[in-house]
Design brief:
Order of helices and strands: EHHEEEEEEHEHE
Number of domains: 1
Largest sheet: 7 strands, antiparallel
Bound molecules: flavin mononucleotide
Distance between the termini: 39 Å
Helix content: 25-40%
Strand content: 25-35%
CATH topology: NADH Oxidase
CATH superfamily: NADH Oxidase
Number of strands: 9
Number of helices: 4
């Protein structure tokens, strides 16, 4: 049975002017050593790609981030001291993949290894079933764009919540995909690190 961590309700009433968040957003590569709280993880993941409209019959749910043909192919993995988890947005919970600390693999740059939280964006190509996403290029470009929306949502939440974050393409994808036990149709697009501002 997979270990599940139920997340608290996201604090959707958190206020921060959008235009200020856009102005202040920056890539941050230095953090305090303090862990990210469960409430912050909840807020961050909901902001990233949480559900904003429940599914209705055959009509799929909607998330904070758009995705090509509403494929919702980007899955968000979270790397914490206590293990690596998959975000299940439907139940707003974390599902444990492994109980090991693999945060040092979030990025290859030395300063990334000390970040309190790693995030891995994985494209599940098997979810891209629309005829418009049939070609390899369509799948690849859409997965990058869809990841970008989620990544920017995280940037904006972090700006509003006094957290530092940076997106990373300098990643050992082979090592990370092995650790996360990804299947052939699951591709690592990008990673991101998060920590409290110094
Ligand atoms: C797709 C993508 C990949 C990135 N990869 C890295 C990376 O591997 N390492 C890093 O230090 N910064 C990385 N960055 C951060 C950029 O260097 C940063 O966004 C850019 O310098 C502009 O700075 P700003 O985000 O503060 O505006 C990446 C950004 C994006 C959008």
């Amino acid at each position: 049975m997979d270990r599940i961590i139920k997340l608290p309700e996201p604090q959707k009433e958190l206020e921060f002017p959008l235009m200020k968040a856009l102005e202040k957003r920056r890539s941050i590569r230095k953090w305090k050593d303090t862990p990210i709280s469960k409430q912050e993880i909840s807020n961050l993941l909901w902001a990233a790609c949480g559900i904003t409209k429940e599914k209705y019959g055959n009509v799929k749910c909607k998330r904070t981030a758009p995705s090509a043909c509403n494929a919702q192919e980007i899955r968000v993995y979270v790397l914490l001291e206590k293990g690596a988890f998959l975000y299940n947005e439907e139940n707003h919970e974390l599902v444990e993949i492994i109980a090991d600390d693999i945060r040092e693999y979030t990025g290859t740059q030395k300063m990334m290894k000390s970040a309190p939280m790693g995030i891995v964006f994985v494209a599940d190509l098997s979810r891209m079933t629309s005829p418009f996403l049939r070609s390899k290029d369509a799948k690849r470009f859409s997965a990058w764009v869809d990841t970008g929306y989620i990544s920017q949502n995280i940037y904006l939440y972090c700006t509003a919540a006094n957290l530092g974050t940076v997106a990373l393409s300098l990643v050992d994808r082979d090592k990370l995909r092995e650790l996360l036990q990804l299947k052939e149709h699951e591709k690592i697009v990008l990673t991101q690190v998060v920590g409290h501002l110094e």
